[in-house]
Amino acid sequence: MSTVVVDPVTRIEGHLRIEAETENGIISRAASSGTMLRGIENVLIGRDPRDAWAIAQRICGVCTLVHGIASVRAVENALAYPIPPNAELIRNLMIGAQFVHDHVMHFYHLHALDWVDVVSALDADPKATSDLQKCLSPWHNSSRSYFADVKERLSGFVGSGQLGIFANGYWGHPEYKLPPELNLLAFAHYLEALDWQRKASRLHALFGGKNPHPNFIVGGAPCALDGKSGATALDAQGRALVVDVIADMRRFVDEVYVPDTLAIARYYKDWARRGEGVGNFMTYGEFPDPFFGADDTSRLFVPRGVILNRDLSNIHPVDLDDETQVQEYVSHSWYNYSGGQDQPLHPYAGETRPNYTGPQPPYDNLAMDQAYSWLKSPRWKGKPMEVGPLARVLMLYASGHAETKALVDGTLSQLKLPQGALFSTLGRIAARTLETKLLADKMSVWCDQLLSNLQAGDSRTHNDDFFYPDTWPTSAQGAGYTEAPRGALAHWVVIEDGRIANYQAVVPSTWNAGPRDAQGQEGPYEAALRGHRIHDAQQPLEILRTIHSFDPCLACAVHLVDPDGESLVRVTVT
Ligand code: NFE
Ligand code: MG
Predict the structure, then answer these.
(1) For 456-486, how does the pLDDT look when each residue is reduced to its tens digit (9 = 90+)?
(2) Which numbered ligand comes closest to the C-alpha of 103?
(3) Ligand 1 centroid to 135 CA: how many Å?
(4) What are the domain boundaries of the chain?
(5) What residues are annotated to the active site?
(6) Which CATH class is domain 2-557?
(7) What does the alpha-carbon distance between residue 569 and residue 574 come to, in Å, rounded to a whole number?
(8) pTM
C-alpha cells in the first residue's frame, strides 16, 4: 500500500488536505482534512441578531453573499418578520447572480485546467480553432486572427518561462485528452471569463451597494426603489444596467459556458463512471415565490428534499427545526462536545469548542481512526449527504421540472450517456453548467417581475413595521436556509433577551468535505475518491478532478483562524 498526499489542494478557497491510500494504483480509502481553523460562529455570540449578517458574511470571500442571506433569513424566521415581495425578488436576483458568476469562475478558473492542457494549446491551428468555435456557437470572438492573437499571448507566457498562474500544472499528463484546438479555445475563454465576471459583479453592487459582501438588512433589501430617499440604484439608468447585465450573463452562458462544457465532456466520457460518492443528495431549496415568502418552502423554485441511494422516485422531506434530522458529529474532528464526542448535536444546541489533538505538523500521515479535520461531519438522519449542483438538478429532475428534464435528457442524449452517468464526476460538472443556464434564464423572469411591480406602483423593499428588541419574545430561535453555489446552507440562531445566545452554520463544503462520523461512514469527498486509478502518483490529476468537481470551499467549511496554524505546501508520495 502507498499513500498519496495532496496538501494543499489548490484552485480552491481555503486549506484542504487529501490523503489517499492506494493498492496497485487504485484508491482504497481516502481522508479529507480541513487544515485551518477560523472562529465566526463564536464571534457572533452576544451580538445583536440584526448585525449578524455582516459578520457571518465574512465566513467566505467566494460565495460572498450566501451567508448574509442565510443569516437574515434565520433572524427573520426566529422573529417571524416577513419581507415584501420586491425584497424577495431582489434577493432572488442577487442569489441568482452569485450562482452564475461563481459557476462560470469555477469552471474556467478553478476546474478547467484539470481537463484543458494549456501547453498543448500551443500546437493549435488558429484557423481550425476558429472553425471549431463557429461550429459550437454564434459567440462573436471567433475569427482566425482572434485565436492567433490568443495563441501569441500564450506562447509569450510559456516562452518567458514564467507560466505564472499556469505553473505547476500536470501538462502533458496522458489523462489530458482534448485536441490542441479545443485546448486553445478553452484557454481563450479562461481569459474572457476573467473580464466577463467583472461586469457580472455589478448586479450585486447595484442592489447591495458593493461586491464582494453586498449589504443586507433584516426585514428586506437595503436599497430604495422609490427615489424618495434621494439617489436610488434602480433609477432608469440602474434598471437598464440590471437588464443589460442579465443579458450579458445569459449570452456568455448560452454561447460559451454551455457549449464548452459539452465539447469538453465528449472527450471525457469515462469520467461518467468515476467519482460517484455517497449516492444521497440533499437540498434545502431556494428562490421563494416573492408573494409567499421564504417560509413557504412548498413553492421554492429548487425544491427542498432528500434523495437516498440514487432513487429518484422518492423525495424525502427535510425539516430544519426537527432536532433528529440535521446533526453534526465531531468523532473525527478537532472539537470537543460537552455531552460526549460521539453524540451528534442539532445546530440549535450546537457547540464549537476547538480541541486540536494532533498530529503535530509537519506530519506524514493522518490517522483515519482518530480526529483528522477541522470540519465537523454533518449528517441527515445519520446519513452523509452530497449537496450542490448535482443534488439540485436531481431534485428538479425528480420533481418533474419540465425545463430541467429537457436540458438533462438532451445533454445525456447528445453525449450518448445513460441516466446513471449523472452520478459521477462528469455528472457533477454537467449539473453545474445546466443549473447555471436554468438560473440565468430565470433571472430575466425575476427582473421582469420586479420592474412590473415598480411600474404598478409597489416600490416597497423592506418591512417598516415596528422592529425593536423590546417587541421580541424573551427567547426565540430560527433557521435560515439558502442554496449556496456549493450546496445547501443554513444558519441556526438562538436569541435570548435580544442577543444571540447561540449561532451555528452548517455549510455546503462541510457536508461534502467532512470526515468520517461515529459510525465510520465516509463523507462525500472520501467516498467519491474510492476506486480511482492513479496513473502517476507524482501527478495525482485524478484526485484533483474529482475533488474539484465538488468545488471545495474550506473557508466556508471550517469557518472558525488559528494564528499559529501551519499549512504544508507539498505533494508527497510515500
Ligand atoms: Ni466559501 Fe460557500 C458556497 C457556502 S461552500 S463558498 O457556495 O456556504 O461551503
Ligand atoms: Mg458550523
Answers:
(1) 999 999 998 878 899 999 999 999 999 999 9
(2) 1
(3) 36
(4) 2-557
(5) 13, 60, 63, 67, 486, 509, 553, 556
(6) mainly alpha
(7) 16
(8) 0.95
